[in-house]
Amino acid sequence: MNPRQQRRVEILTRLDAGALDVSTAAEMLGVGARQVRRLRERFRQEGMAAVIHGNSGCQPANRTDPASVERIVALAGPQGKYHDLNACHLQELLERDEQMRIGRSTLDRVLKRAGARKPAKSSRPVHRRRRLRRPAEGMLLQIDGSPFDWLEDRGPKAVLIGAIDDATGKVLFLHFRPTEDQIGYLLLLRNIAQGFGLPMSIYHDRHTILRSPKQPTLEEQLAGQPPMSQIQRILAELGIESIPAYSPQAKGRVERLWGTLQDRLTKELRLAGITTLEDANAFLPSFMEHFNARFAQEPQDSHHAWVPLPADLDIAYHFSVRETRTVRADHCISFRGQLLQLLPGPRDPSLVGQKVSVHIVPEGEIYLYHGKRRITCQPVAAPPARPSQPSEEALRLAKPADPKGKARQRAWLFGQR
Fold it and tell me: The pTM is what?
């Protein structure tokens, strides 16, 4: 018997001997007076066996099938295809792909008992102030890029550019890029704006792509305008508040998202046999759908804060990298080693000597604007390269030598004399 059962035997023995009354025994056992009388009567008939529960030694009715446990351990063991999945992720894939239903806590206990998983190490606690979620969807987005070996040596390393809504925890955008670059964030902003609308504010780190580290020039100081990166300029033009974080913990929601995706997404890319970034990007929409259905939650306020885009908004004007050029006398500009001929309309004024802005969208297409008016342009074909003048050595090697020519020339010169 265990210590608890031994204590119950001692109390019932003293009760039966008259050393304790029913109310005292009930208080010591933590049961009612009627239950104490039942226990005393049963103790008189069965002895110490009365304190042992009738189900002791019996197999539980809800016990997991040993064959299922053996199969799970084989799948999650060192040689199994789910060898490095956590218990929560493994439970979902077992139900979805293996048609095996098992509770998460039961699965975790089975794996630890079989030695397939080790208990998580507890880190030293850090005291931080909790920031509450924003009440409505679209009020605050957290964006970031995560460099990681997402394809596990099956393909190139990449950076995953992503955005998560603060109110719901919904993943709004994921895209693989070779590096953390402007194109990735341009695609992020454009995709979210077209799919949901403009958010009120964006929380991000202090990467130079998202926040310019330059000191303001004299002209910028006189104009009261700080230096801006391309992404900063886009956010300012669209009226989106830019909030730079001073620590990773400040934007903890997107940082925790990377930890989850580096565990879950990496395994699912492996199970799908994906080896290229193109296939990985094609896989992301279905993954995001399942991920949001599993982890996203309802906001406190059902009325979202997204600002819809105007129907006449020029997407190429806003969601692009912008540079400035001066129009030459022939109505051409030079951009990246190429001449572009401006084709203004018959009523358009001359743009010679004026500034035009060159907008490059993420796909690489180029658009020209004078102010906010788009200007038609076309590339100018480069003139054919002129052949270089051959050197004397090249001519001498190209023309075969005439051994008799010099002799004839000397004979002619002597003959003239």
Answer: 0.70
